[in-house]
Amino acid sequence: MLRWLLVVVLVLVLFNGLRPWLEKIGLGRLPGDLHFRLGGREWHLPIATTVLLSFVAMLIGKLF
Fold first, then answer.
1. What parts of the sequence cross the membrane (predicted)?
2. How far apart (Å, rounded) are the C-alpha atoms in residues 49 and 55?
3. For the residues of 1-63, what is the DSSP string, one character each?
4. Residue pair 36/55 in contact by the 8 Å Cβ criterion
5. Which residues of 5-23 are buried (b: 16+ CB within 10 A; e: fewer)?
6. For 15-63, how does the pLDDT look when each residue is reduced to its tens digit (9 = 90+)?
7. Cβ-proximal residues to 22 (8 Å cutoff; 6+ apart), any chain
8. Positive/negative CA dihedral, 13, 11, 37, 20
9. So what's the pLDDT on residue 14?
């Protein structure tokens, strides 16, 4: 359980670091991604991008 929690945290940190680059190629601005301001902060919930990247990762995993 601790190993999976560590993997999830590392992936979130990686995606957060890559977010500006991913937005340049169009990910993070798909129709299912939510962007809103709440409490003076800007929040991003990239639901469609997450589904797309999960699907790509699943395809890569099936190929190897």
1. 44-61
2. 10
3. -HHHHHHHHHHHHHHHHHHHHHHHTTTT-STT-EEEEETTEEEEE-HHHHHHHHHHHHHHHHH
4. no
5. eeeeeeeeeebeeeeeebe
6. 778 888 888 888 888 899 898 899 999 888 888 888 888 899 899 989 9
7. 15, 28, 49
8. positive
9. 84
pTM > 0.85:
no
Per-residue pLDDT tens digits for 24-37: 888 888 899 898 89
- CA–CA separation, 14 vs 16, rounded Å? 5
Nearest CA among 54, 47, 49 for reference residue 26: 49
